Structure formats: structure tokens, C-alpha cells
Amino acid sequence: DQQVKQNSPSLSVQEGRISILNCDYTNSMFDYFLWYKKYPAEGPTFLISISSIKDKNEDGRFTVFLNKSAKHLSLHIVPSQPGDSAVYFCAASGTSGSARQLTFGSGTQLTVLP
Amino acid sequence: KAGVTQTPRYLIKTRGQQVTLSCSPISGHRSVSWYQQTPGQGLQFLFEYFSETQRNKGNFPGRFSGRQFSNSRSEMNVSTLELGDSALYLCASSLGQVGDTQYFGPGTRLTVL
Predict the structure, then answer these.
(1) B10 contacts on A by Cβ (under 8 Å)
(2) Of residues A32, A100, A105, nearest to B31 (C-beta)
(3) Concatenated DSSP letters for A70-108?
(4) Is the pLDDT score of A100 beyond 90?
(5) What is the tens place of the pLDDT at every residue in B28-84?
(6) Coil, helix or strand for B81?
(7) Which of A37, A103, B34, B97 could pair with B46 in a Cys bridge, judged by C-beta atoms 3.0 to 4.6 Å apart?
(8) Is B79 on the interface with A (CB under 8 A)?
(9) CA separation for the pair B45, A94 (Å, rounded)
(10) Using alpha carbons only, how large is chain B's radius of gyration in Å?
């Protein structure tokens, strides 16, 4: 049972345009969400996070939106650059018990075309 | 600050052997978590250590174990290796409180032949 889902395995975007990566979750106990970027044979690099008390968090070109009622979050990258090409994972954690355990989605391969 | 370091980066073992992987967290971080990444299962949580105690455990068999030392460095051990244990093993460190961001190391690529 996948508690965190990234339904698009891949996404291609032109340089300079907006990239939108989506993530859905099913566990209502999740209240902290993160996005990581990963290159092959490297560890994930933290990009941005959001807690459930917010609906938006922005950091430079990266913005994460959270829609709690729909159990949906998205990562916007504006403008997209060729160096953004990588696999993007969303992850979630809860507030109690195994709160510090991250549950990951399956990832979306983003390709930014020059 | 130096990031999370993992050694070795690459390892080749044969079925039935055991292996120990090492992780040094970011200075000041007391929590170390271990994850396994495979093409079929994605990124899955193994366990988390905080102040030398296992605090959380994922759904992996007892062949997977770990420990943490007083300097927060952690080791992960896999005994009686199986072909399916071939994976990228990642460790992540954080301050250890709920909501703290986990920062990942580069991983150890384990190949079991």
C-alpha cells in the first residue's frame, strides 16, 4: 500500500518554463512534507519542506504547495534550468510514533530541455 | 559544516556473507536513519538511531541491524546476504526532533553476487 504516490514517472519541460511536480498521500497522520532531488549514484539532496499548518512555502525558484483536504502537494520550479534535470522525490512524516521516519514516493524524472 | 559521509562507497559481496556499512552524521546531529533504495521498492526506511538507541524500525528482517556510537556515528550490518539485498544504502542525519530535516549521505552501493 503506497502511502505517498508520485503518479508521473517522468516530466519534460523547456528551459525557462515552469516545472510542476505532483505528489499525493493517503495517510492523514502525515503532517510534514519534503522534496528531495536526486542524481544517479548520489544521495538525495534536500530542496524544500512544508508543515501542515501552511499551504505554501517558497525558497528562491522553488515553491511547494500543500492542499490538505485533497491530500496533495506540488513542487513548482520557476524558471526551470537544465541543471534541474534529476529525479525528484516527495517524502512525508507524521507527528507521533514513527514520526521521524520518512515515507517516500517513487520519484519523478524531470528533464529540462535547453 | 561537513555533510553526511558514508563508507565504503561501493562494495561487492557474495551470498551468505555479511557486511558492515558506516555513516558519520553532520556535526551536532544526534539522529541517524538508514534507508534502502532498490529499483523495485524505491526508498524504504530501515531504522533510526538516536543517542545510541534504536528509536524506530522499518519492515525489514532481523538480518538487518545497526548501532550507534557515543559520537553519533552509526553502523549498519546485514548478515547472510541475499541477492535481493543488492541496493543503494543511504543514511541520513538530523537533529532528531519531529519535523527536523533529514540530510542524506552519498550512499553505499552494495552488490551481492
Answers:
(1) none
(2) A100
(3) TTEEEEEESS--GGG-EEEEEEEEESSSSTT--EE---E
(4) no
(5) 999 999 999 998 888 999 999 999 999 989 999 999 999 999 999 999 999 999 999
(6) coil
(7) B34
(8) no
(9) 14
(10) 13
